[in-house]
Design a protein that fits this description.
The complex is a heterodimer of chains A (246) and B (245). By secondary structure, chain A is α/β, with parallel strands linked by helices. Chain A contains seven helices and ten strands. Chain B is mostly helical. Chains A and B meet through strand 6 and helix 2 of A and helix 7 and helix 8 of B. Chain A: It holds the Pfam family ABC_tran.
């Protein structure tokens, strides 16, 4: 399912009465099955972009095209679970059509089997994040949006969850948009990286990664990262962006 | 256990006080119990209690449903809040007696007038509480429901209602105590039955045992309803919260 985003501008009215430009004009598209990654400094407007793409914020100039029947799965920065419903109910409420077998498989992959009947208040952040992931995948989304799903987790857990995300994304054709400020996550999960500037955000560079995700060895990932670092230096030297580094 | 002890202490104080003050002003617990038994065996006690409880139930349900709906609307829609606010302030500060008397003057000494008057007294506090509850709703969960395309009713039931439950419980609690107080005044002023009517009669005859008999049975019924209905509902509404140690 193709996702096209064209934003010509987004401003906020500040409390003092002035207007603040959050997003500069930008345009990008993701093909069906592609994982796009938005990388940018904190506070650059990534979350605002996501809200626009998700249809939560309609007060902007521009246009977002996604098929109206597209099912959306979302992992918010904070898990946003319903504290008064059990883990299983939280998933089922968002995905009423999910089959028992599918749910069992998701819970197995994400190691949540023991927590089905727990309330979110009884879970650690890592577990709550996994429930949020289970919920997003249970809806069998056409468009999957992940807003820093691995932030503030320890490296080992983040690494495991990242592999789980890769497995789940590979298991069905889904257009994915991942927001992160970890270059490592971006290079390991992404097909196409979008580097954003500080606020007002615009796309500094769009970098496709040619090697298929499952074939990326640690060496290849290190090479891509080195390429990106070199390229950042080149850019400071004034060179034009837009080249395939892989 | 502690409750029983505290109740026994209350009886002991009453009994001693009755000994000092004398039977006419403060009858002993046993004298009051005699009257309760006599009224109960004649059936009058149940008739009057039943009439009062029916009024309480009707007025309470009416005020809670209307008040909650209005409060939710005012919490969600700015225009409704602006339009409703002056009315709300007026109703909040209108003395109960004024509402009751006006209701009887305009609608006659009827059952409908009594119930409407009681409901109007309780209504604004329900509106205020539910409006606060609605304003405190977690926007991020609304967004979650909207992103996952939850149908309206499901989102209301599973996302909104659990957040409002503590406010509904609080409003039911305070509202019920308000209704208990006002229903007797309404009965005293314009109904031919009910606990309030009986207390009025007892007052005119300076019949203290009878007055206490009705007041205390009424208080006992209130206590039973509070512990048997209102508190379990509150406990259920907040069951997902981690228990305090």
């Amino acid at each position: 399912m193709r996702l096209e985003v064209e934003i010509t501008g987004k401003t906020f009215k500040s409390a003092a009465g002035g207007t603040q430009e959050v997003l500069a004009p930008m345009k990008f598209a993701l093909q069906s099955g592609e994982v796009g990654v938005l990388i940018g400094p904190s506070g650059c407007g990534k979350s605002t972009m996501l809200r626009i793409i998700l249809g939560l914020d309609r007060d902007f100039d521009g246009h977002v095209a996604r098929p109206p029947e597209a099912r959306i799965g979302m992992v918010f920065q904070e898990p946003r679970l319903l504290p008064w419903r059990s883990v299983e109910q939280n998933v089922r409420l968002a995905a009423p059509d999910v089959s028992d077998a599918k749910l069992a498989e998701l819970f197995r992959i994400l190691e949540l089997e023991a927590h089905r009947s727990h309330f979110p208040g009884e879970l650690s952040l890592g577990l709550a994040r996994r429930v949020a992931l289970a919920r997003a995948f249970a809806v069998e989304p056409d468009v999957l949006v992940l807003d820093e799903p691995l932030a503030s987790l320890d490296d080992a857990l983040a690494g495991r969850l990242r592999d789980e995300i890769a497995t789940l994304v590979a298991s069905r054709p889904v257009t994915t948009l991942l927001v992160t400020h970890s270059l490592d996550d971006a290079v390991r999960l992404g097909d196409r990286l979008f580097f954003l500037s500080p606020r007002p955000a615009r796309i500094l560079a769009e970098v496709p990664i040619g090697i298929p995700r499952e074939a990326r060895s640690d060496a290849a990932i290190a090479a891509i990262r080195a390429g990106l670092a070199r390229r950042a230096q080149d850019e400071q030297g004034g060179e034009r962006a837009g080249r395939d580094v892989s | 256990m502690l409750r029983l002890l505290s109740f026994a202490l209350f009886l002991a104080i009453w009994w001693t006080a009755a000994l000092f003050v004398g039977g006419a002003k403060l009858p002993s617990p046993s004298a009051v119990l005699d009257v309760i038994i006599a009224e109960a065996s004649s059936g009058a006690l149940f008739l009057h209690l039943g009439a009062t409880l029916a009024r309480v139930a009707l007025a309470f349900v009416l005020a809670m449903s209307l008040g909650s709906a209005t409060g939710y609307l005012m919490g969600r829609v700015k225009l409704a809040d602006r339009l409703g606010d002056p009315w709300l302030i007026l109703l909040l500060n209108l003395p109960a007696l004024v509402v009751i008397v006006l209701a009887y003057v305009w609608a006659g000494l009827t059952e409908a007038a009594a119930i409407a008057a009681i409901a109007i007294n309780k209504l604004p506090t329900a509106v205020v509480t539910l409006r606060e509850g609605t304003r405190a709703l977690d926007r991020s969960l609304d967004e979650m429901a909207s992103v996952f395309a939850m149908p309206r009713w499901r989102a209301f039931r599973h996302v909104v209602l659990p957040q409002l439950a503590p406010y509904i419980a609080a409003s039911a609690r305070s509202g019920l105590s308000l209704v208990w107080k006002i229903v007797l005044v309404a009965e005293l002023l314009g109904r031919p039955n009910g606990v309030g009517f009986e207390i009025g009669v007892a007052f005119q005859l300076f019949d203290t045992p009878r007055l206490l008999a009705y007041s205390l049975t009424f208080a006992a019924v209130v206590l039973v309803i509070e512990t048997a209905l209102v508190q379990p509902f509150e406990a259920r509404a907040t069951r997902w919260r981690p228990r305090a140690a």
